[in-house]
Design a protein that fits this description.
The complex is a heterodimer of chains A (276) and B (314).
Chain A lengths: L9 H22 L5 H4 L2 H11 L14 E4 L5 H11 L39 H14 L6 E6 L6 H12 L5 E7 L2 E2 L2 E2 H4 L5 H7 L3 E6 L3 H13 L5 E6 L22 H10 L2
Parallel strand pairs in A: 1-2, 2-3, 3-7, 6-7
Antiparallel strand pairs in A: 4-5
Chain B lengths: L3 E3 H15 L3 E5 L3 H4 L2 H6 L4 E3 L4 H13 L3 E7 L8 H9 L6 E5 L17 H6 L5 E3 L4 H13 L4 E4 L4 E3 L14 E4 L4 E5 L4 H11 L6 E5 L2 E3 L3 H11 L2 E8 L4 H12 L4 E6 L9 H7 L4 H16 L1
Parallel strand pairs in B: 2-3, 2-4, 4-5, 5-7, 6-7, 10-11, 10-13, 13-14
Antiparallel strand pairs in B: 1-8, 6-12, 9-11
Helix pairs in contact in B: 1-7, 4-5, 8-12, 9-10
The chains are: A alpha/beta (276), B alpha/beta (314).
């Protein structure tokens, strides 16, 4: 299994995304707690990375030349676990152990136990800084790996994100690509009402980043954006992905309630029907 | 014990030595490199030095990322900022994943002096001892500083090393062997044990010498590894001397005194006195004036020794 994951076609990516959504619903439903909304919004982003863009070997999670994915919004752990299982980092049966005592699959990502998890997260705002460290190490070691970091838009309330934004440009880490899962919602409501971060793209531009805006559920746009990021030299790139929280499950879409609430058994059944 | 040595100069020079010996050593600072003395490393190895500006939280998580990719980062700032300003980043980006980051904080304690309470770290040891996986060291002099740094560099896992701004009396010569996790017995004695860290080790030794003519034999332990603490040495001190005095430039809560008390309470309770800052912030003043004001002096230690001896007899 120490081979790289094959690059999928767009149709295959769409089918994979649907499978990931089913895993997410099943896992969180079985656990009885977790964060479905921000996991579902990030499905296409993470599917594009693991099945099209990144060089990685599920059988060799510590392969030194691998591209790195850092999940900064650690509450979206289910989408990462589903992806890693789908890639073959660990058996899919393990997904049923999410949040259970003794499981590798902790409520928020823990890099001590889970193969393929690069960073422990859960306290927001640290992943971009951590990724800068990984990128600088690669530069010092003359390695060519790229680093991809997924942030939430609510997460960008954290001051550390902007410390990191400033320093990533200062250190010219052009092998770093950040992606913001801009689903517009945070725990207490719409981000524009809780803490308005607009003009969001202009902020990143003014911090010295190359910016790209895409529909975060459109594989073609995501692939193009990641390919473009690879060509940008001398500055980091941020992909601002417009997404829908709870995407793919009608009664979860744009519903802040499902930020951190598990579906009940009836809702699990209904959601899985929609995702069949 | 007449001459003095600088903890911070020693740090700066030792980093160069470490950097020459190991290409994986990298250094981070938060705009205080001329005070922490990491600037020596910066001029020698500019490509391995990252000045993160006045952004300690970012610096800590970057250090975590570097360590996760095989580097050995030494990250420095004043002790009020690291750990003070970035406890959560230390917790999530370093401690929880057990990453090989060495935090070296300077300007610990009240002897920062005139800058006042905002700049006097008196809670840092409590914070750092509370974190699972961290090793916490407070060297007693420049010699021990160099040895502790070299040990940290070759020992896997997160370290917090607390240095102070002032120069300190030279306690150890070149024959000293730093033993991680082991207390160093500087004076043998059977009546009472004084356990000290950092700048307080020198006055502890002085008072032991002063009390000898009276027939009071003080044992003095330098507990430079505060975590994991040398339980055996503390247990032995309690059993063999029957009384303990702790001395530290830190709050009474959560520092050396608390750690020692926890060990003797569990193993062999004996009378104990703690010399530390008592649940208050300090203030501006000359370092010597502050030590005097808050009782961190030879006189203060002597009083505590006499008090604990009285309690031992009664």
């Amino acid at each position: 299994m120490s081979t790289e994951t094959a690059s999928l076609s767009v149709t295959e990516l769409q089918n994979t995304a649907k499978r990931l959504r089913r895993h997410i619903i099943y896992m969180i439903g079985t656990a009885g707690s977790g964060h479905p909304g921000g996991s579902l919004s990030a499905v296409e982003i993470i599917t594009t990375l693991y099945f099209k863009i990144m060089h990685h070997k599920p059988g060799a999670p510590h392969w030194t030349e691998r591209d790195r994915f850092v999940l900064s919004k650690g509450h979206a752990a289910p989408v990462l676990y589903a992806t890693l299982a789908e890639c073959g980092y660990f058996p899919k049966e393990n997904l049923a152990t999410l949040r259970k005592l003794g499981s590798d699959l902790q409520g928020h990502t823990d890099c001590n136990g889970t193969p393929g998890v690069e960073m422990s997260a859960g306290s927001l705002g640290q992943g971009l800084s951590f990724s800068i460290g990984i990128t600088l190490a690669g530069r010092l070691n003359k390695q060519n790996y790229r680093v991809y970091t997924l942030l939430g838009d609510g997460e960008c309330d954290e001051g550390q994100v902007w410390e990191a934004a400033m320093s990533a440009a200062h250190f010219k880490v052009d092998s770093l690509t950040a992606i913001v899962d801009k689903n517009g919602l945070q725990i207490d409501g719409w981000t524009k009402d809780i803490m308005n971060s607009e003009p969001f793209t202009d902020k990143w531009k003014s911090f010295g980043w190359h910016t790209i805006e895409v529909d975060g559920h459109d594989f073609n746009q995501l692939i193009d954006a990641f390919e473009q990021a690879k060509t940008i030299k001398g500055k980091p790139t941020i992909i601002i992905a417009h997404t829908i929280k709870g995407k793919g499950v009608s009664f979860m879409e744009n519903k802040v309630d499902f930020h951190g609430k598990a579906p009940n058994p009836v809702q699990v059944e209904q959601a899985l029907k929609e995702l069949a | 014990m007449g001459s003095t040595g600088s903890f911070r100069e020693t740090y700066g020079k030792t980093l160069i030595e470490l950097g020459k010996g190991n290409a994986d050593i990298v250094v981070l600072d938060a705009d205080v490199s001329h005070s922490t003395m990491t600037h020596y490393f910066a001029s020698q190895f500019p490509e391995r030095f990252f000045n993160c500006g006045i952004a300690e939280q970012n610096m800590i998580s970057i250090a975590g990322g570097l360590a996760s990719s095989g580097k050995i980062p030494f990250a420095s700032a004043f002790a009020v900022f690291v750990p003070g300003r970035c406890f959560d980043q230390i917790r999530i980006s370093i401690a929880q994943p057990h990453l090989n980051v060495k935090l070296v904080a300077t300007h610990g304690g009240i002897t920062v002096g005139e800058d006042g309470a905002s700049h006097q770290a008196i809670e840092d040891l409590s914070l750092m001892c509370s974190l699972p996986s961290f090793t916490v060291i407070v060297p007693a002099d420049a010699t021990e500083t160099a040895l502790a740094l070299k040990t940290a560099a070759i020992t896997e896992g997160p370290f917090y090393i607390r240095l102070c701004r002032l120069e300190g009396k030279v306690i150890y010569d070149e024959n000293y062997r730093f033993n991680l996790g082991k207390a160093n017995m500087l004076k043998t004695g059977s009546d009472v044990t004084i356990i000290a860290i950092g700048l307080m080790v020198a006055p502890a030794c002085e008072i032991a010498d002063n009390l000898k003519p009276e027939g009071i034999n003080c044992r003095v332990l330098n507990m430079s590894t505060l975590k994991p603490i040398d339980e055996m040495a503390i247990k032995q001190a309690a059993i063999e001397t029957g009384a303990i005095v702790t001395v530290e430039e830190h709050l009474e809560h959560g520092g050396l005194g608390s750690e020692v008390a926890s060990v003797i309470a569990k193993n062999h309770p004996v009378p104990m006195e703690m010399i530390a800052i008592k649940d208050t912030y300090a203030q501006s003043g000359k370092p010597a004036e502050l030590l005097e004001y808050y009782g961190l002096t030879t006189k203060g230690i002597e009083q505590a020794v006499r008090t604990v001896l009285k309690r031992k007899k009664s």
